[in-house]
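Curious: can you check?
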Amino acid sequence: MIPLTIAEIAEIVGGRLDNVANPQAKVIGTVEFDSRQISPGSLFLALPGAKVDGHDFAEKAHAAGAVVTLAARPVGTPAIIVPSQAKAEAGSQAYVFAHDEDGSVRALLTALAKLARAVVTRLTSRWGLSVVGVTGSAGKTSTKDMVAALLSTAGPTVAPPGSFNNEIGHPYTALRCHEDTQFLVTELSARGLGHIAQLAEIAPPQIGAVLNVGTAHLGEFGSKDTIAQAKGELIEAVPEASAGGVAVLNADDAAVVQMAAGTQGKIVTFSANGDTQADYYATDVRLDELARASFLLHSPEAQPVQIRLQVAGKHQIANALAAAAVAAAAGVPVETIGTTLCDYVAVSAHRMDIRQRGANVTIINDAYNANPESMRAGLAALAASAGTTTQLEDTQLEDSGQAIAVLGEMSELGTDAVAAHRELGTQLAAYGVDTLVAVGKTDNIAALTEGAQEAGVGTHHVADVTGATRTVEEILGSAQRRVVVLVKASNAWRLWRVAEQLVNSEL
């Protein structure tokens, strides 16, 4: 964070000083809500959580070097006390406020947002910080990471770790910026209307990219049209073209294309399907034995550039094109974009993380998130890696392997959840899946299993991670050919532990 005095921070957030001997003492370090991450010069955010209350760790933070604590009540050490607010209403992002019994969480996150907005405003107006926003139903984190890698070639870049994309992670990331930071890359998530607009107010984007509109969080939104409206809030926040605003849109997604009417920014499009009318598009697409794509990147700025991605999955082509469009808009040469994309490796955990176990077993850990769209992308990667014959495209290899899908629940699909899981089960054969290992005891998993059985896919229904790991090991023990295992579910089910146990097991 840029250096600010305690008095300046208090004025920005509308708080009062408590137990502060020197209001001119400066915060020169990071803002942290985990006292274990405090270093000299930091600001400590005393955020109440599910199991512990940050207020109880203020003394520990102070001893570790925190200059001041941002708090909702006195903590016995130097503090800025923010006024109480009404308890947040239960709603689509209620999980953030699930333990906000007295409104203190809402008060502290409001203060954090004000502080982040003030810092970003100073950085953009005085030191030329450029803000990039990325949203979509699937691929946000992968694309965000690619964008950060590309922009880092042009100057110091800050991006959130993992999927730090909500009311906590968004301002937390913005406050990592310093005077020398040239680019801030943000990932914006929402579970209802107005959420992306609120996040965009904290760090107003100069460049906004919308990847797709799918059915993730359908239970919260109620309809795909409402999801599109929410994602479009990012594009609406982009300034007009004369002020440098750029809206990067997926030409292959009709719902995203329609967002062009909602922006005054320069419209830049990309197409993984080879639409030559798009500004950035791919041709000559190939997948190798690990489902890594190669393609020709076409752009308005230069001759086509050959790209060979190190990350797995055909869906990564769209992510790479979006990242390329963003980077080019920020001034990165296409040649540099091409070289960087070829060298890029995944940095966020449990996202298309491909590992080899011996010579004949490939494990694809994509268990951070799951919705119908990302499930299909994961299954396509499984089919490509296994070289199985599918009903979708002819990808059979001479040494085609056995394809095993270890699948858990797709969360937050609302009333359509059971039907969506059953439909997914019926589609497994089309992706060349030989065996389904369905994990969990829910109605959704039962529907997934029934759908797979109807499609003629061999199924194993297990209760938990232990059962899934044991079942896959038994299959591997009797396998007569190479095996590719996809592990995928919503993060809450922690199915990535299956992948880790399989990778770390003795052959």
